[in-house]
Write a structure and sequence with these properties.
Shape: globular
Distance between the termini: 74 Å
Largest sheet: 4 strands, parallel
Helix content: 25-40%
Strand order of the largest sheet: 3-2-1-4
Strand content: 5-15%
Number of helices: 13
Length: about 270
């Protein structure tokens, strides 16, 4: 019997069933399409597909948790497709960090709108929002408390895991998208208030991130020589040195204390 595809209802359940890798991606990147284009040798077009919905494609090609690979149907047969590694391959050829970058936003910016948007925080959320708003024609000003943009991409990850020049290139690409102004060393509550922004801008987006470690409810956590993991990483990645002695006890078995960060600690502190 011939199937009547014209009567098929394409809804979320259908998409989840037929394109699990795409639906697992928070940006809904069409992973299957750019993997197919890579197999066909159409690398430039594959990069455009990978980058189009995701202003952080170069970052995701290196440090994304790749939920698409967990959902990849190939994994039911043997192993999932190495989607993240393939994205990195594409960004190294055509991303802003490459020798021959492609401007995927050329001709996409909408006419200028008479509205100004303030974004507090230049981390992944703030930068992504600025990128998309600029494409829509809004004038965007980003206020960042740190001396660098990128948030935890720059301040929370060791350089060999995510090279600084890749983060900087991705930030430059986003800032060149449209009418985007970045103001560094501007902290909410110190240099401005939210009330100030609401008075001067048409809308305000709070994207301050999560730069605080969890506290331990045990005696001694406030003693000298006790450092919180994120505080330690922030200072190390900004170039400051710690004098912590020859023996170090690490509490916690998550990614903050992984071997990647341990090697960073050994190279940047006087153990």
């Amino acid at each position: 019997m011939q199937k009547r595809f014209g009567d098929k209802k394409v809804d979320r359940d259908w998409l989840n069933t037929n394109f699990p890798c795409m639906m697992a991606c928070p940006a809904h990147t069409n992973a299957g399409r750019y993997v197919e284009l890579i197999a066909e040798g159409e690398f430039e077009e594959a990069y455009r597909v990978a980058r189009d919905p995701n202003p952080m494609a170069s970052i995701c090609g290196r440090v994304c948790a790749h939920p698409c690979e967990t959902a990849c149907r190939r994994g039911e047969i043997d192993k999932p497709i190495a989607i993240r590694a393939l994205k990195r391959f594409l960004t190294e050829r055509y991303g802003p960090e490459s020798r021959h970058p492609i401007d995927v936003n050329a001709g996409r910016t909408q006419p200028r709108l008479p509205f100004r948007i303030a974004i507090v925080g230049a981390g992944p959320v703030g930068l992504s929002a600025a990128h998309d708003l600029a494409l829509m024609g809004y004038a965007v000003t980003i206020f960042e408390a740190s001396q660098v943009a990128g948030g935890m991409l720059y301040l929370g990850l060791p350089e060999y895991r995510l090279p600084r020049d890749v983060v900087e290139a991705q930030v430059r690409e986003i800032l060149s998208t449209g009418d985007i102004t970045l103001k560094l060393n501007q902290a909410a509550g110190r240099d401005f208030t939210i009330a100030d922004l609401r008075r001067d801008f048409d809308a305000v987006l709070i994207a301050v991130g999560a730069h605080r470690s969890r506290d331990l409810t045990i005696p001694g956590v406030n003693l000298d020589g006790v450092y919180k993991g994120i505080d330690f990483l922030l200072n190390v990645n900004l170039g400051y040195r710690f004098t912590i002695g020859k023996k170090v006890l690490v509490i916690g078995g998550g990614t903050v204390r992984s071997e990647e960060h341990t090697s960073e600690l050994q190279s940047l502190t006087n153990l």
